[in-house]
Model the fold of this input.
Amino acid sequence: MILRLAVLALLAFMTLPTVVVIAVSFNPTAILSFPPAGFSWRWYVNVLTYPQFQRAAWNSLVVTGGAVALALPIGTLAALALERARLPGRSLWAAALLSPLVVPGVAAGLGFLILAAALGLLRSRLVLIAAHVTLVLPFVVRSVWVSVRNLDPALERAAASLGASPRRVFFRVTLPLLRPGLFAALLFAVVVSVNEFVVSLFISNRVTEILPVAMFTYVVNYTDPTIAALSSLFIAATFLVIWLADHFLDLGRVFLQH
Amino acid sequence: MKLLLLPALAVLAVFAAALTALFRWSLLEFVPGSLAPGAYTLANFKGVVAPQYLHAVWDTVILAALTTVLTLAASYPVAYALARTPSRRVRSALLVLTLAPFFTGAIVRTYAWVLVLGNTVITWPVPMLFTERGVLVGLIHFSMPTMILILAAALSHIDPAYERAAASLGARPVRVFWRVTLPLSMPGIVSGGLIVFAWTLSAFPTPELLGGGKVKMIANVVKDLGLDSFNWPGAAAFAMLALALTLALLAGAGRLAGGRVT
Done:
């Protein structure tokens, strides 16, 4: 009984900010009040018509699209190599590939900033794409690796013995069997990249900045509920993604077993 | 087969180049008013213990320690419920509520706390926004999903037969928890604690927005020096400090958890 109450209170603590953001996003006035004094869509209109957010949304699309399109094949090949190749020191290679996960954002961000400045690439979105590839790659490798491990090589040998070329085996047997891992990898890569903030803050400017950086700048400079509206859109998208993931992936298995 | 690793190693090389550049610049002299650095020097690391920054390092360690302990206490009941509930629907609901903030970006989560801690929703008896208290609340909220997942994984590996055995031998529920469940979940507590501590040491968006410039942690000093004062060498020294602390702690966590981190 006490445990149940404690869990409910803690869940309320975890959800409270989300509830407040959504409530405030419909606030009719620029001065925040809670509970809201009325109902208005004006901050949603503001989000969609603010030029800097439009530009940042486009940048987010380009950066996340580019980074995921690169990281997904690179990570899949690496996961195949980690499981199948006769690698001396396999666990060291795996640790190296996952290492970007443990580097603090400000260290990676400042490092990329210094490197980009040395290469004269500071005004380009290429730096953001390169940084995002390194940051999402560990998630791709880890998700796909689990699927590779569960893949029975006998199925591929069977296809080969029936006369399929190695290329055909890869595209008709291996890749379809890796689908759950690839789907999880895609999900993680998109979520991590879309929300990436710290590293992106260091290597972007007003022209190249992605949405989280634009939102940060707005929060620092203005106090109206525009960011609440944009945050609510993010939250809605997040719940949709989690619901889809739970539906197709069984999140309990993904998060609690390995 | 080995060649398949090459593209990933190329990506890793870019990352290594960035960290090498960071390390090199932490050893270069800052020339005020210029982006070009001077000769090699150790002066930047003396800045880490300079009076105007030492309190940021100190605040970082204190806040990270408090965050770790309070996050553990707040996450354990939720993790226990998640690991032990017999109902698939309750488990699913708990998991979605736990993961939602995990999947919501740092800016959205932190902005939400700006609203809650500012006096718009609740009128707080003591100031919360732009104080250490407020930053601490935000940091705990930020760490809870990670901690819950690690603890729930540890708890779900404990065979409930041990608890039933203790209960059938006459131990009351509280005693069963303290003498059986808690000790058996220790690996999760230790690795979760170390991971949260390491993460919090380099926290950035939470202290930046909830501290409002009045509360500074190491990462905020890196941003101030690097992006506002263009003192890249000074910022690099602080970033190296954060990196070294994090790596040392995670190495410890990895050793204690038998090589299974995150």
Notes: Residues 37-256 of chain B form a domain with the MetI-like fold fold (CATH 1.10.3720.10). DSSP finds twelve helices and no strands in chain B. Chain B has a mean pLDDT of 89. Chain B touches chain A through 85 residues (CB under 8 Å).
